[in-house]
Amino acid sequence: MSNMDIKELQAISDAAINEANAVLREINLSLHSNPEIMYQEHHAHKILTDLLEERGFDVERGAFGISTAFRASYGSTSGGGRTASVNLEYDALRDIGHACGHNLIATAGLAAVLGVAAAIKRGEIKGRIVAFGTPAEEGGGGKIKMLRAGAFEGMACSLMVHPMSARSSHNNAYSSSMCGSELTIEYTGKPAHAMAAPWDGINALDAVTLLHTSVGLLRQQIMPTDRIRGVVLSTGQQSAVIPEKAVARYCVRSASLERYRVLKQKFVNCMDAAALATGCTVKATWLPAYWDIRTNDHLAARYMHHVQRADPDQQFRSVEEQKRCPDCYSTDQGNVTYAVPSIHPTFMIHSPDGAVHTREFTAAAATDDAHRRTVDQGKAMAAVALEVLVDDAFAAQVQAQYDAMDLSVAKDPFVQ
User: Fold this and answer.
1) Does residue 369 register a pLDDT over 80?
2) Burial class of 96 by CB neighbour count within 10 A (0 to 12, 13 to 18, 19+)
3) Terminal Cα distance for the chain, rounded
4) Which residues form the Peptidase M20 dimerisation domain (predicted)?
């Protein structure tokens, strides 16, 4: 335990973040101007790990068997202290750069761990802060690979934030997300001359057509929060030849892992039925599923408090409203929330001309105003992490809520 009270520690953290602001801005802009897609984030990996090492962190580069992942630790748990963790995302989108604002996520996380490290040093805290560099959120499931490699074992909490456009969303400490996965489907039939001997053929395009039709009919019986969408990637090129192969890409999502399991089975039934009806074989290649976020209420409440402490103008709706309005995105941080008490709040930046995943949001993610708001998020996460490290009663509340959740559905191989 620290010999300082929590307010003194938070003041130390805030001051350290303020002192580092120029460096944080430089990192932010460097990430933004050098966008890198999933598992190719070598520039981001280098500048973040170099800075953390310079600031006294014990840095493991290329962690968990992923060349662009890292783990950076400060402090010690010898003597019974706890470990808090913060996730830094830094991958971009192909062609449109940081249109999801991951440069801001990395900046906020970096600010948070620098602040906590300063408080640990000054306050003689028995505890540790860990920065996880988590690549490939945009479709690559980097955190899922890290989870499977044991990255988050022993963490008392996992914290991160995500920017959103003020035109389409709100500040939300109790963020939720959709659960789901994408898959590639390959139907294989038999080619034949479409006019001379069509009866000799097995039409793979017919199978995709049946799948698409079946999904369209299925939409009458699915939940309003369910989503199924798909495109045809390739099929036959000549009208005179029965297509032997057809490849489609689909996404299946719902509001919770429990509901996703139900919806996925319905989709698989449609997919297999199309193969049976046409005589094709079918091969489905699923990406790892991104699970829904299970927000820890105690962490979220303290985060909201500390955001407003850093900037009283930051507005939040009531807790009930925040929980009642689900967000229509998916993130591999959802999977982390099943393994450790976690939050994934969203915060608003000014992007009047476009929401996330647009070129307009890419531009907004580089503004001074977005950086200022991002640094405030870093201060709030640092303050929450410090409470977890030094306040035994608060840490117990956080863990008790996590322990009370029914997470048994996550053990079903069908939803992996």
Assistant:
1) yes
2) middle
3) 39
4) 183-275
